[in-house]
Amino acid sequence: MGVPLRKVAYDKFKSRLFDKTLAPGSFVTQRELCDVLESPMGAVREALKRLEAEGLINLLPQRGVQIADINIRFINDSFQFRVLIEQEAARRMARAPQTEILQGILRRTVDLKDRAVDAPEDVEGLLSEGLQVDLNLHVALIANFENALITDTYQNLEDRVRLIRLNSQYSLDRLSVAMEEHVKIISALLEGDENASAETLKAHLKTSWRRALGDREVGL
After folding, report:
1. CATH, range 5-67
2. Which pLDDT tens digit goes with each residue over 94-111?
3. Cα(86)–Cα(134) distance, integer angstroms
4. Nearest to 10 by CA among 52, 55, 64, 50
5. Does an H or E element contain 79, and which?
6. Taking phi first (over 0 means left), then psi (-120 to 50 degrees means alpha), and beta for anything else, what does residue 20 get?
7. Nearest one of 51, 61, 55, 43 to 7, comparing CA atoms
8. Domain boundaries, the chain
C-alpha cells in the first residue's frame, strides 16, 4: 500500500515551508498550493486541516491560506512551552543518565565548537550541522520520557522552533556560544545533578528565546 496522498501533501508542505518556498506570513490560495505541492485538491485540503491544528497555517474565509507568521506571540508560545517541558525532561535524564547517548552528543558538540573557532570554509554547512547537533540533545531529552503523547506534541513544537530558527540570524559566534551551553548541560546530566541540569538548560533556552525576539527580555 502506498503513502496516503494527504500525507504526501502534508510532508511536501513542510518541506516547502522549511526551504522557504512558502514564506511565513504570506497568503496563498488552495489552488496555488496544489501546484506548489504537486498534489490534488482533496489531499491538500486534508493536509491543511492537520497543519491548521498544528498552528503552521491559518485558514481564512475568502482569503485562502495564511502561512504561520513568526511574530512575538508565535515565538513566546513556543519557547514558554519548551522551557516548561524540557526542564522536567532534564531532571528526569539526570536521575538516570543515558551515558552512551549523552557522551556521543557531547563528542559531536565539542567537535563542532572547535571547528567553529577555526574559521571554516563552509560556514553554512557548519551552521546547518550545528543546528542538527543542537536538536539531537533536545530530542534525546524528550525521548527519555518514553511517552508517545509527549513525543508527538514535541514534534509539533520542534517544527515551530525550526521555523523560528530559519527566520532568525545565526552566526558562528552564536554557534560557539550554543555549543558551550550544551557542554555545560550535558556535563550536569552526566554528573546526575538534577538542579544544575535544569538550570543550565533553562538558561540556554532563555538565551535562544531572547535572540529570537531580537534580544528582548523574556518571562519565566
Report:
1. 1.10.10.10
2. 999 999 999 999 999 999
3. 14
4. 50
5. helix 72-95
6. left
7. 43
8. 5-67, 72-212
In which residue are the cell numbers 556521543 written?
A: 104
Q: How many whole angstroms separate alpha carbon 175 and alpha carbon 181?
A: 10
**Domains 5-67 and 72-212 equal at CATH topology level:** no
The yes/no answer on whether domain 72-212 falls in CATH 3.40.1170.60 is no
List pLDDT tens digits, range 74-94: 999 999 999 999 999 999 999
To which H or E segment does residue 27 belong? strand 27-28
Q: Is the pLDDT of residue 216 over 70?
A: no
H/E run at residue 67: strand 64-67
Question: Mind listing the pLDDT tens digit for each residue in 36-53?
Answer: 999 999 999 999 999 999
Mean pLDDT comparison of 16-25, 154-163, 189-198, highest-scoring range: 189-198
Burial class (CB in 10 A: 0-12, 13-18, 19+), 20: exposed
Whole-model pTM?
Answer: 0.87
| Bridge partner residues of 57 (DSSP) | 67
List the grid coordinates of 172.
558562528
Which pairing describes strands 64-67 and 57-60: parallel, antiparallel, or unpaired? antiparallel
- For residue 143, the Cα-to-chain-centroid distance in whole angstroms is 15
Most confident of 62-71, 163-172, 179-188: 179-188
